[in-house]
Design a protein that fits this description.
The protein is α/β, with parallel strands linked by helices. Helices cover 34% and strands 17% of the residues. It has two domains: 161 residues, 3-Layer(aba) Sandwich (Rossmann fold); 188 residues, Rossmann fold, CATH 3.40.50.720. It has 13 helices and 17 strands. The strands form three sheets. An eight-stranded mixed beta sheet has the order 3-2-1-4-5-6-16-17, with helices on both faces. Strand 1, helix 1 and strand 2 form a beta-alpha-beta unit. It is globular, with a radius of gyration of 22 Å. The structure holds nicotinamide-adenine-dinucleotide. The site of nicotinamide-adenine-dinucleotide has 30 residues, from helix 6 and helix 7. The transhydrogenation between NADH and NADP is coupled to respiration and ATP hydrolysis and functions as a proton pump across the membrane. This is NAD(P) transhydrogenase subunit alpha part 1.
Length: 376
């Protein structure tokens, strides 16, 4: 099969869906690979590195005109103009963007959105949400440490003792757990909150303290269980009590990392303006939900400005909406491996393209086919 990989054109996107490592494996399986010149440069992969493993370096139209196109972000209208009818596009195609899916369907593209893969053991090696969230959690702490005007670790020096930074992590999925682990490695003391009770043990095993907000009603308990491992919106009664507990911790914190998301919905507000105003001057908030608040504004904090670093009430708010792109080389390496593992399902050895809807991962990821959006 002819497989093409274009240069990503979304603002700030520096990742690439193919690395020389994954290209080599696909070529060994008999596929022909084309990559757009410069597609890997922002992720430290040169054209020569692709050519060395047998990839043809072509222009945008050449890469987009393949039978199978590997992407990081959904194809733009301009990109779709070069994608041939009936071609397959695999990427993070944003299954919640009805308009984008409609555009792909109208172009008669078969789309596989990798974010829609189930959170099962078999799907783990192709779980792009996890591979990228892990990087975001790490980078969030590194950025916080960079913006923070004090040390993270406790230090005893001849010139006196420096206290360890207090870090609060709100939302402990994949990104939150990595944020805790990274802050711990830097020597901070950490407290964390999540709606899902199963998280407590994971937080404690990383040496952080869980902010307990007990469930008082059957409704609260049921909502907290979530669905498929994901959070559901919590009842207002619980959120009110969580707010009180979180507000106390945030006021005492030096650094707050927020990562709370609910798939397909606006990110919950966890740090209000009032809470920011109560923080110490010089504190830092990194909002991983930037751009995902109500109507795409704000994040877990309404003061967050998407893709900006701003100062409000003496607090630095970091609102990068694509942290994995700032660790482009490793993010691409892990993403490309996720893509390669998914391709094993639709390009079985010695067979052509096979879309087996009996396979739960293939069926879950399929978003457009035969001119139609297959996912509501
Ligand atoms: P996510 O990015 O969707 O959300 C981040 C976190 O925010 C979640 O832990 C969520 O519970 C939390 N959250 C939502 N609303 C909140 C609120 N009001 N207050 C505090 N926290 C709130 O999550 P994710 O990283 O994609 O992980 C979701 C789940 O999937 C986790 O349980 C994770 O362990 C699980 N998972 C399973 C697999 C697998 O089995 N293969 C792979 C990856 C992740």
């Amino acid at each position: 099969m002819l497989i093409g990989v274009p240069l990503e054109t979304s603002q700030g996107e520096s990742r690439v869906a193919l690395t020389p490592e994954t290209a080599k494996k696909l070529i060994a399986q008999g596929h022909t690979l084309r990559v757009q010149s410069g597609a890997g440069l922002a992720a430290s992969v040169t054209d020569a590195a692709y050519q060395a493993v047998g990839v043809d370096v072509v222009d945008a139209a050449g890469a987009l005109g393949a039978e199978l196109v590997l992407k990081v972000r959904p194809p733009s209208e301009a990109e779709l103009a070069h994608v041939r009818a009936g071609a397959v596009v695999v990427g993070m195609l944003n299954p919640f963007d009805a308009e984008g899916l409609q555009r792909m369907a109208a172009a008669n593209v078969t789309g596989f959105a990798l974010e829609a893969a189930p959170r099962t053991t078999r799907a783990q090696s192709m779980d792009v949400l996890s591979s990228q969230a892990n990087i975001a959690g790490y980078k969030a702490v590194v950025m916080a440490a960079n913006a923070y005007q004090r040390f993270f670790p406790m230090l005893m020096t001849a010139a006196g003792t420096v206290k360890a930074a207090k870090v609060v992590v709100l939302g402990v999925g994949v990104a939150g757990l990595q944020a805790i682990a990274t802050a711990k490695r830097l020597g901070a003391t950490i407290e964390a909150s999540d709606v899902r009770p199963s998280v407590k043990e994971q937080v404690e095993s990383l040496g952080a303290k869980f902010i307990d907000v007990p469930y008082e009603t059957a409704e609260e308990k049921e909502a907290a269980e979530g669905v498929g491992g994901y959070a559901r919106p919590m009842p207002a009664s619980w959120l009110e009590r969580q707010k009180v507990e979180v507000a106390k911790r945030v006021a005492a914190a030096d650094v707050v990392i927020t990562t709370a998301l609910i798939p397909g919905r606006a990110a919950p507000t966890l740090v209000t303006e009032e809470m920011v105003a109560a923080m110490k001057p010089g504190s830092v908030i990194v909002d991983l939900a930037a751009g995902r608040g109500a109507n795409g504004v704000g994040g877990n904090c309404p003061l967050t400005e998407t893709d900006q670093v701003v100062q409000k009430h003496g607090v630095t708010l970091i609102g990068h909406s694509n942290l994995p792109a700032l660790v482009a080389a490793d993010a691409s390496q892990l993403y490309a491996r996720n893509v390669l593992d998914f391709l094993k399902l639709i390009l079985p050895k010695d067979e052509g393209l096979k879309i087996d809807l009996e396979d739960d991962i293939v069926a879950a990821c399929l978003v457009t086919r035969d001119g139609k959006v297959t996912k509501p």
